[in-house]
Amino acid sequence: MTWAQRSGSSLANDEDSRMGVIRAEEAVRLGEQNDRAVLTVAGHSSDSRECAELLAMLGLDAGRRRHKTA
Description:
76% helix; single chain; mainly alpha
């Protein structure tokens, strides 16, 4: 294997690694956005039934909410 072939493979691995980090960061960001939206809907709902209906209509997942540790 020539140096150029190994270098290209290394670049591909670096790119895969960066994309993995970007995907993980995006998953965290989307989870936080979902959490804020769920709290907003819950705060504006008159009861649990209405809250569940609104969450379903908006495609939000209340079960996904994570508890943050300090």
